[in-house]
Amino acid sequence: MTVQQPIPVPPPDEAPAAPAEAAARVTPMMEQYLEIKAAHQGLLLFYRMGDFYELFFEDAEIASKTLGIVLTKRGKHQGADIPMCGVPVERSEDYLHRLISAGHRVAVCEQTEDPAAAKARGNKSVVRRGVVRLVTPGTLTEDTLLDARANNYLLAIARARASGGGDRFGLAWIDISTAEFMVTECSSGELAATLARINPNEAIVTDALFNDSELGQTLRELPAVTPLTRDVFDGATAEKRLCDYFAVATMDGLAQLTRLEATAAAAAVTYVDRTQVGKHPPLSPPAREASGATMAIDPATRANLELTRTLAGERRGSLLDAIDCTVTSAGSRLLAQRLAAPLTDAPAIARRLDAVSTFVADSAAREDIRSILRGAPDMSRALARLSVGRGGPRDLAGIRDGIIAADQVLTRLSELDQPPQEIAAVMAALQRPSRQLAAEFASALDEQLPLIKRDGGFVRQGYEPALDEARNLRDASRLVVASMQARYADATSVKGLKIRHNNVLGYFVEVTAQHGDKLMSAPLNATFIHRQTLAGQVRFTTSELGEIEAKIANAGDRALGLELEIFERLSAKAMAISDDLRAAAHAFALLDVATSLAKLAVDDNYVRPEVDDSLGFAIEAGRHPVVEQALKRNGEPFIANACDLSPAPGQKSGQLWLLTGPNMAGKSTFLRQNALIALLAQIGSFVPATRARIGIVDRLFSRVGAADDLARGRSTFMVEMVETAAILNQAGERSLVILDEIGRGTATFDGLSIAWAAIEHLHESNRCRTLFATHYHELTALSAKLPRMFNATVRVKEWQGNVVFLHEVLPGSADRSYGIQVAKLAGLPPAVITRAKSVLSKLEAQDRGQTARALVDDLPLFAVPSRAAAEAAPPSEAELLMEAVKALHPDEMSPREALDALYALKAKLPKQ
Ligand SMILES: Nc1ncnc2c1ncn2[C@@H]1O[C@H](COP(=O)(O)OP(=O)(O)OP(=O)(O)O)[C@@H](O)[C@H]1O
Questions:
Q1: Which end of the chain is least crowded, N or C, by CB within 10 Å?
Q2: Using a 6 Å cutoff on CB, does residue 821 contact ligand 1?
Q3: Claim to verify: residue 443 and residue 560 sit in the same structural domain
């Protein structure tokens, strides 16, 4: 997390006073600098001087270090050198990007008048300057500063302290680059999961919240947190500020927000206003997200399941990377959003699945639409740039091409037989933008477009007569220059005479040094006025050239001025229908996601899941979407496995699977694949299985007992226990929990007992669907007394002393871990392997005896007074007991042998 200083923003009309003592000693320019800097503390000040943004004092030191640019000095302040560094304006975006990525915020200060105007005011006048924008991580709009495939959210967090504890939080998040605006409310227990889902690039909070020790940990997870003064989070003025932003008289037309949501929403728009300084980026009205509408997934689970990044921090290898076949940036962003927030509403999921099914069934439509979308522009980001005055001609072209693509897509979609609801909505949205606008843009814009509007030359010839006239004049004058050059060369008999142009001299005549004297002597000196002598050339001007120069400059300026006017006019037309354009842009994204998920389903052989409100969970031949792709690249098959956690009343069924198996057998893969299948189903995707029936999962938990967090000062085991505690405290019967080797991070018996007690708790109290992988084979005995627990194991076979992994999950339990065989595969020296084997056999003998005694004490059988009574026990109970005993003895034995063994064991125990 980046710690930021509060931004003290003065009331708009009141300019901050310059420090009196500084004013006494500093140059007028430095005085201006200090004044602007004082109003923007906590931000690096980019102070425009000619073609550079200069940074001074500490800002210069920070920037030179972060950007690796030279630190120089400029004059003195209070007797000391002023450190300075600068970045060229034309490459400033790159530098901005690096500063923002490093967690800094920047105030961009421009010259707001012509230097000539300053001069006219008096000799000592400094060019007026003003901050035109604050660049912060959450308020970016430039393509170069943004990741095209990810949303860039600014999040405001407002808190209400309830008297009896149990704080509530209002959250509002905005992506200025797409105009999205969402709000929700949550409890403190839900905060971490909600923040992880939104995944903001910058959060704003009050100073008090920023310094709150309880929240510190949660806030530290965020990339940048900016504390602001309390007035920004003032609930009393929130509604008015929102109404002002949306230019409405009352909130009636907007979604009904709770007071906390409105407070957060108002803080967010206030910050947007402040950072954009006078610009007012249009935002969609805040949409309210109902609590519980999405699957709760806490940060540890997201990290652990590698949803958008691998544990090593890479996108490649994550679930998102494996399923992302989108062809547009907006589609990719929407897919990432959906993956972050799987739905909990079965009918809404079904609507998404219907759209995917349509394109699974109709591959021609799918491919046609994908090829149109591939060329479609990112309209929402183009609109955002235009709205804050940072758009260029290519953004206008983007809108033109977007509307044209909308027509093409519509034509193709109208060939579908009975399009499902989601596609019908897409079609309605694509009809909205005015076709006339596209036609006008097409007639206005040239084929080749410059990147920035000030370069000019983007309006098509013939679009506006006045522009054509100005351009003709400018071009004709250029021709005049060419003919003048020929004439001068003739008149002077200097063949190599050239007319050139630069910004200092304007147009000038240039001859080589040997001809210089000739032009400087009579009679030619009457025409050619000497301007400059360089090493090899001499430069002259003529009065005729001066006149033509003025004409060209005027015509050029006029042409550019007209083009800029046309740009603003077209831009205003686009803004006038920005809601329609944004609806169409969203429709493209929806279609991209639906067709890409359909392509994934077809290419990787996925099936449509059945999602309902039951507590069922039955997957047939399930696969891990990421591991399967990785194996496929190497030409290796993935072994599919079933998993059934559905409740089966009246029967022993396995809502809690205990999975044992050797190292490297595929336990973790199996656990994760089931969680990922549930998640994919609930985002409305087909899933890697031959059949999947899933009762809505409201919370997903995934833990591995090995991740440590030394950076936060917690040991491996502490992290594991904190996370396990969260699950045992929070999981309910709709949750899906996967626990991988919990208890591994401590001494064997401590770990075993914790795992033992955790399983009992999950089974009895949480009653959630659970997959629990372990190397503690002793735990399998628990199935004897927990009716909804089921033992499963991953099969391996031994061949010539080596272990062969079959990756098949079957009922039963593993007899051993084959840890030594795996160590041998990994290349441990043979002597170590041999010694380990001998130590293991001794330990096993000792351990089995000890564990058996401990477990036997815990089994109800030992309350049975005699063997005769045990034999007379009801068969089901007897069977359970047999199972428990078998679990203690790896070798196959008949029920009778097991009972014999049990009593033999009991006889050995000390008498009570
Ligand atoms: N179903 C499968 N089909 C094919 N290969 C698989 C399958 N499951 C796992 N694998 C392969 O086996 C490797 C090990 O799997 P995994 O990490 O799940 O084992 P594990 O049992 O959890 O091991 P450990 O107990 O050592 O953590 C995977 O990287 C993958 O390449």
A1: C
A2: no
A3: no
Annotate 273-329 with DSSP letters as a single string.
HHHHTT-----PPPEEPPTTSB-EE-HHHHHHTTSSS-TTS-STTSHHHHH---SSH
State the CATH number of the domain containing residue 673.
3.40.50.300
What is the number of structural domains in the chain? 6
* Domain hosting residue 582, numbered range: 324-455+577-603
The pLDDT, as a whole number, for residue 121 is 77
Alpha helices, DSSP H only, in 532-662? 543-576, 578-603, 625-633
Pairing assessment for the beta strands 699-704 and 296-297 based on DSSP bridges: parallel
Best of 627, 636, 744 to mutate for ligand 1, by most ligand atoms within 8 A of CB?
627
Give the Cα separation of 562 and 466 in Å (integer).
8
| ipTM of predicted complex | 0.97
In the chain, % helix, strand, coil (3-state, to 5) comes to 50, 20, 30
**Ligand 1 centroid distance, CA of 626 (Å):** 12
- What confidence category does residue 824 fall into, taking pLDDT thresholds of 50, 70 and 90? low
Closest ligand 1 atom to the C-alpha of 773? 22
Greatest CA separation found in the chain? 138
Q: Are residues 273 and 187 in the same domain?
A: yes
Same domain? 644 vs 720: yes
Q: 166 labelled as ligand-binding?
A: no
Q: Where are the alpha helices (DSSP H) in 762-872?
A: 819-825, 830-858, 867-872
Mean pLDDT of the chain: 83
CA nearest to 154, candidates 299, 241, 274, 318: 274
Residue 564 burial class via C-beta count within 10 angstroms: exposed 0-12, middle 13-18, buried 19 and up? middle
Q: Is 226 in the pocket of ligand 1 (CB under 6 A)?
A: no
Q: Which atom of ligand 1 is closest in space to residue 640's alpha carbon? A: 1
State how far the Cα of 679 lies from the Cα of 851, in Å rounded to an integer. 38
622 within ligand 1 shell (Cβ under 6 A): no
- For the cut 70, the answer to whether the pLDDT of residue 827 exceeds it is no
Q: How far is Cα 524 from Cα 518, in angstroms, rounded to an integer? A: 7
Q: Nearest CA to 741 among 752, 728, 732, 725?
A: 752
Q: Residue 740 and residue 672: Cα distance in Å, rounded?
A: 9
Q: How far is the CA of 662 from the centre of ligand 1 (A)?
A: 10
Helices marked H in 734-829 — which ranges? Answer: 748-761, 819-825
Using CA atoms, how far apart are residues 898 and 901, in angstroms rounded to an integer?
5
535-572 confidence digits (pLDDT tens)? 889 999 999 888 888 887 788 888 899 999 999 999 99
- The reply to whether 140 falls in a domain is no
| Total-model pTM | 0.77
Q: Is 523 marked as binding a ligand?
A: no
More confident residue, 675 or 899: 675
Instruction: Output the CA torsion 202→203→204→207 (10° steps).
Output: -110
Report whether residue 807 contacts ligand 1, using a CB cutoff of 6 Å.
yes
Is 727 within a domain? yes
Which ligand 1 atom minimizes the distance to the CA of 624? 1
**Six-digit token string for 796:** 């391996």
Residue 315 lies in a domain: no
Is residue 170 classed exposed, middle or buried when 0-12, 13-18 and 19+ CB atoms within 10 A define those classes? buried
Is the pLDDT at 687 greater than 80? The verdict is yes
Q: Which of 664, 676, 777, 820 to mutate to test the pocket of ligand 1 (most atoms within 8 A of CB)?
A: 664
Check residue 3 and give its pLDDT. 43
pLDDT digits (tens, 9 = 90+) for 424-451: 999 999 999 889 998 999 999 998 888 8
Q: Coil, strand or helix: which one is 690?
A: coil
